[in-house]
What does this fold into?
Amino acid sequence: MQIKTAFSMIKLTVIGVIATTLIACGPEKQTSATTEAAQQQTYKWKMVTSWPKNFTGLGTSAEKFASLVSEMSAGRLKIKVYGAGELVPALQVFDAVSQGTAEMGHSSAYYWKGKTPAAQFFTTVPFGLTAQEMNGWIYHGGGLELWQELYAPFNLIPLAAGNTGVQMGGWFNKEINSVNDLQGLKMRIPGLGGEVLKRAGGTPVMLAGGEVFTSLQTGVIDATEWVGPYNDLAFGLHKAAKYYYYPGWHEPGSMMEITVNKNAFNALPKDLQTILEVAAKASNVDMMAEFTAQNKSALTELVDKHGVELRALPNDVLATLRDVSKEVVAEIAAADPASQKVYDSYIKYRDSVVKYHAISEQSFINAR
Ligand code: CA
It folds into this structure.
C-alpha cells in the first residue's frame, strides 16, 4: 500500500552546475558545532523519502546522495535512506524531518502546499521556469533565500536536489486538435496543472499511481500525465494509450528537494555542513543529466520499437492553457502573503530570463 501511496506522488520531475566548485549558496545564518569532539564524532542519520526504495531516477538519486556524503566525509556522516512507508509514509516526509524523526528528507516541495501554499513554487509552475532557469533563480536570483525563509518556521533547511527537466504533456486516448477537445477531458493531472485544466473545461481526476494504468486502459480516464519517456516507458503507459503528447506545459522543470532538520544541521561541524550542501548540488546536476540522457533513449524506444504516436499539442490549445495558467497562479499567490512574496520574485525573474533566453537558448536551438 505504501508503494501505491508513493506512486501516486510521482507526478514528478528535475537541473545543473559543477557542484565541487560552488559552495557559496548554502544557508548563511546557520551555526555549526565547533568543538573538537564534534569534529571527531561519527554521525548516523536517517533520510526519509517520498519514493519507493530505489525508484527510477528519484529513489536512486537519494541513494547516490547518501553514498557521496559518506565518501566525501570519510565515513563521518552516514545516511541511511528509507523508501516511502519504510519509516514514514510518502507524504509525511516534511513532518518527520521537521519533528526530527529523521534528520533528512528527499521529496518535492509541491506536496507541502497544505503546510504552506508557497511551497508549490519550489517544484514547478505551469509555463514557468525550465530546470536551468530554476537553478539561476534558486542559486543566484534570491530563490533559495526565500525558500529558507519559508521553511524556517518548520525547523527545516531546504536544498535543491535534482530536476526532471521538461516533462511530457501525457498519454491520451483522445485526440486533441482544438480547445474544444479539452471540454470534459478526464485526465489524471495533479497540482496546479489540474487546476488549469479544470478552468479550461477539463476534468482533472485524482488517482493513486497504482490505478493509473488500468483506469487509462479501461477508459475511466481519457488521459494521464506522468513524468517523461524514462519513467513512462518503465511504467508501461504506452500499452494503455495511443497518443503521446508534448510538451509538458504543466511541469516545465520539476525540482526535487532535500530537507534537513535545522537542529541536526546546526549540530554538525562546518565541513560536514558544507559536504551536505555540495552533495545536494552534485545531485541536482546528476539527476538532470541522467534524465536528459535517459529520456532521449526511452523516447526513441517508445516510437521505434513500440510504435507510439508522438503528437504536439496544437498552438491554440497551448495558448489557452498559458492564459489560464497566468490567472490560476496569480490567484494562488494573492491568497496568502508568503505566496505573494515568492510569486513576485519568481515572476520578476521569469519575465527577465524569458526575455534573455529568447535571444540566447531559444534562438540558438531554433538555429541549430
Ligand atoms: Ca508529472
The domain at 43-368 is CATH 3.40.190.170 (D-Maltodextrin-Binding Protein; domain 2). The chain has one domain: 43-368. The radius of gyration is 20 Å.
